[in-house]
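Below: protein 1.
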Amino acid sequence: MFLGLTVQAWITIVVILVMFTVLMKTNLPPSVVFFSAVVVLFVTGAIDASTAVSGFSSSAVVTVGALFLVVGGLYNSGVLKWVVKYLLGKPKSYALAILKLMIPAGVMSAFVTDSTVTALFIKAVKMWAKKLGTPASKFLIPLSYASLVGGTLTLLGTAPNLIVSGLYAEKTGDSMNIFTVTPLSLICFVVLIISVLVMSRWLPERKSPDENFEKVNDYTAELLVPADNKNIGKTIKEAKLDNIEGGHLIEIIRFDKEVISPVTDDEFILGGDRLVFSGDIDHIADLKKSHGLAVANHHLFSLSEENSNRKVKTATVKFGSKLTGKTFAESGIEDENGVVLIAISREGERISTSPREVVLQPGDTLLLEYSSQNKDALEGLKGDLIVAVDEEEVIKIDKKTLISSLILLAMILLSSLGVTSVLMSCMAAAVAMMVFGCLTPKKAQKSVDWGILMIYACSIVFGKAVQMNGIADAVANLIVNVSGSNVLIMMFLIAAAALFLTEIISNTATASIFFPIVYQSAVTLGVDPKPLCIMLMLCVSMSFATPLGSPSNTLVYGPGGYKFSDFLRIGIPMNFIMLFTIVLSVYFIYLA
C-alpha cells in the first residue's frame, strides 16, 4: 500500500497516464494504444481475464456496432443526403441561417452519429455559404457544435451516452429510456444556439482551402513537348523529369486527350505531350530552357472538368495520423494507392512550394488526383485522411429510401416505448437494413469502424479497472472531502475535470473512467447517482475548445481553413457556459 492505494491501483494509474501521453505525443493509431494498455493491465495483474474482455461483450459496444449498420443503411439509401440537401433553404439573415443549420444538424445527430452528420453537411454548407456571400468558416464551427450537443439528445446519438447508461444499468439494474437525457440536453442545445448567435462576431472569416485550389494556374504549369524535342522516346526518369526542383509531374495529357496519372518513372515521353506540373511555378518555368519545353498557350488541367480518366478530391490530414511529420514523398502513398498530390492548403493559405516536399501537419488540406478506374484509391487512406464526402446533385429516391426511414422510426419507437431494449431494437434495425436491401453485405463491412469499437471496448475496461482497484473510492472520497460534502461543489469539481479531460482524449474513455468516480461520489454523499450520470454524459460530449477534442471538430478544421486558436477563442467561453448550464440544470431539476 502506498498513499492508501494498492500496487494494482498504481499500475492502473501509471498505465492510463502513459496511454494519454502516447496518444498526445505520437501518431500511433488510438485503437492500438488503447488495446496495448489493456494488455499491459492484464499481464501485470492489474485486471483479471474476465475484466480484460468485459468491454468486448458489453451491450453498449454491441449497440454502437449495430448503429454503424443502421447509419450505413440510411446513407446508402439516400435518406441522409436528401435531408441535408433540402433543409438549408435561403435564409434572409445570418441569424436565421444559423438556426436553419444548427437545428436540423442537432436533431439528426440525436439518432445518427455526430461525425456522420457533420461530414454530410460540410460540402453542402460550403456551397450554401457561397450563395449567401458569407465565408464557410462562419458556419462550420456552429455545425460541429450543433452535431456534438445534438448527439446528447438521445442515448443513440453518441457512444458515451450508451456506455454510461450501460454501466449504470449493470450497477443498478435500472435501464435508462432512449429519451432519459433529452430534457437536460435540450436545455443545453438551446443555450448553445443562443451562445453561438451572441458570440458569432468571434467566429473567424477564413478562406476555405477550396478557394485556394480554384485558380489552378497559380500552382500548376503546363509545358508542351515539341516535335523535335531531344527527350522524345525517353522515359520520365531518363529525361530527369522525375525529381525536379520546386515541383513534380502530376499528369501527362497526350495529343489524343488520353490522361496519364499518376505518372510513373518508366512512362515514355511522346511528341505533343502536355506535361502538367504542380509546385513553385517560377522553378517549373526553368524547365523550358533546361529540357527544351514550350509553354502551353492555354490550360487544359481543370478541377471542374473531370473526365473518364481522372478524379480530383480534397482530403484533410487527421490528428494522430501517421502522415504527420512526413512529406508526401516519404509516405509512399502515391505508389501504394495510385494517387497524386497536386496542392496543399494550411490554415486557409495555399503552400506555394513543391507539395510533395512539404512536411505534413494535422489539419492540412490536400488536393489529390487519381484514376477514375481506381475507385478504391482513397479507401486505404481513411485511417489517416478525412476524405471529402461527395455531394450528388441528383439524389435517387426509391422504395429503399422509404424502407430505411421506416426502419429508423420503428427502432426509435420500440426502444422509447419500452417494447424492446435499446440493444435489441438497434440489432433488429441493423438486420432489417440488410434484409430489405438498404445495405449490401460489402457496404455493411465498410460501415463498421472497427478501430472505434476497439476504443469503446477498451475504455469500458479502464473504467472497471479504476473501480475494482479502489481508485474510484479514493478519488470519490477526495472529492467529497474537498467539496466539504456540498453536492453542488462536488458536481462542479467532477464536471470541470470531465470537460477538461474530454478536450484531450476520447470522450468515451473519459466517460468510462469517470463513471465509477461519479457513482461512488453520489453514494458517499447519499444522493441519487442517476442525475450525476446524466451530467457526466453531457459533460464528456462538450468538446468545443480544440479541433482534436472530437471527430466533428476535426472534420471542419481543414475545410474551414481554421487556425487552432479559432477554436480556443470561442470554445473556451462555450465550455464555461456549458459547465454552468449542465451543473445548475441537473442540481435544480433533480437534487435541490
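Below: protein 2.
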Amino acid sequence: MKAIIKTLSASDTAYWLRHKLGLSYDWRSRLADWRRGRALDYGGPVLLPASRSAYSPLYELSEIAAFIKDYRTFDRNAEAEVKPEIIYVELDIRTGEQKRLAHPPRPLIATTTATAGAAHV
C-alpha cells in the first residue's frame, strides 16, 4: 500500500527548526548526526528522516511538528521564533564590489524642482 505524505528536505527541515527553536544548535549538523546514529544519547527528542530521496533525506511534516512540540517541552530555553537576519549590502553592479552596511539605508525621498503647472519646452 502506498501513501502520500508531506515532507521537507534536510536543509529545509534545518531551516525550519532554526526558525522555530532558535540558535541553540546547528540544526543541519544535528540532523546529520542523528541520521548517522551519533548524539542519540543527549536525553531529548530525536528527529529521524521518514525516507531518503536520491538527493536528500526527507522529513515528514507531522513528525517535524511533533519534534518541535516535544523539544520545547524538553528545553524550556528554546526561543519561540527567530526571524531571519536581513543583511543590507551596497552593491556596485558594474564592478561587483560589495560593502556590508551597518544599518538599513534611509529611504530615498523624491524631490522635484519643477513647479506645478509649468510648461515643458
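The mean pLDDT is 79.
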